[in-house]
Write a structure and sequence with these properties.
By secondary structure, the chain is of the alpha/beta class. 42% of the residues lie in helices and 14% in strands. The chain has 14 helices and eight strands. Strands 1, 2, 3, 4, 5, 6, 7 and 8 form an eight-stranded mixed β-sheet that branches.
């Protein structure tokens, strides 16, 4: 029975999934495949490496720093979130809180990081072969929110947030052999996504990245369709949806530490249903 976990990200709301994954580490719950989008890719990197609590610190301590996310970053570097600070300065072997790269590399869990080719709009599925010690560009690519961040360049190709490429990659998980998949959402399951914010951002990248702009306009519909499909699979016992009943006031770019802690604790508590789903006969 091959099992998978998908973390769809959601900026600072990703701390909910961080709580769920820490519960899994505390209870020795493992997966054969992990697929991460945006902040979800960083969550899963720490999970696969066995670094319990690492992401909590990134959200609630480092995330409050101006070097991490600020208007100054946007003015100076054209990215509200400084990807090189998050996935370089902090995460490299000599950083303040390094990724345990050898543990990530040697884990039997397969790892997919989703990004979007900013020019073609195609989903790109990076894997462990694209990650090296202190070379975490795939996380930067997957987490680059259009306009809020400039596209991240890998081998001359600009990439945007993985949610534009494959918003809820359940079919990818099944195509790779998974029979049961845990889907970690960071907004209430039945809360439909609306396109207003995406449309505004799309207008700001339209001239340079017209295909990505169109993908951004379609994002809400693809997300809502993805959740609906997940609910159908859930009825068949193939998918378990883990999602918060509310987001405790946390949004994609909001950074109130008390609210984030509440959302983390909600994720940790909600994850208690995962074990019986994964290990059922």
């Amino acid at each position: 029975m091959k099992t998978g976990v998908i973390d769809v990200g959601g900026g600072f709301r990703g701390i909910y999934a961080c709580g769920a994954l820490d519960y899994c580490l505390d209870n020795n719950i493992k997966f054969d495949l992990a697929i991460g989008i945006s902040a979800g890719s960083a969550n899963l990197a720490s999970f696969i490496a066995g670094q319990r609590g690492r992401n909590f610190t990134f959200y609630t301590v480092y995330g409050l720093r101006k070097q991490y996310a600020s208007l100054k970053n946007f003015i100076k570097k054209r990215s509200f979130i400084d990807m090189d600070y998050v996935y370089g300065t902090l995460s490299n072997h000599d950083g303040e809180n390094p990724v345990n790269y050898p543990a990530l590399r040697d884990s039997p869990t397969d790892f997919i990081v989703v990004a979007e080719n900013a020019i073609t709009g195609e989903a790109v599925y990076f894997d462990k072969r694209d990650i090296e010690q202190d070379k975490y560009g795939v996380f930067k690519a997957s987490s680059s929110i259009p306009f809020v961040c400039k596209p991240y360049i890998i081998d001359g190709v600009p990439y945007y947030d993985g949610a534009l490429g494959d918003t809820i990659p359940l079919e990818k998980a099944f195509s790779l052999g998974c029979e049961r998949v845990v889907l970690l959402l960071t907004r209430p399951e039945n809360l439909l996504r609306t396109p207003e914010k995406d449309n505004k951002l799309a207008a700001l990248i339209q001239k340079k990245y017209p295909v990505s702009a169109e993908r951004l306009r379609q994002r809400a519909d693809r997300y809502n369709a993805g959740v609906k499909l997940a609910q159908e699979y859930a009825k068949e016992g193939r998918v378990l949806i883990v999602s918060p009943d509310d987001t405790c006031g946390v949004s994609t770019l909001s950074r109130d530490p008390e609210n984030m802690k509440k959302l983390y604790e909600k994720g940790y508590a909600d994850a208690k249903i995962i074990k019986s789903f994964i290990y059922q006969s």
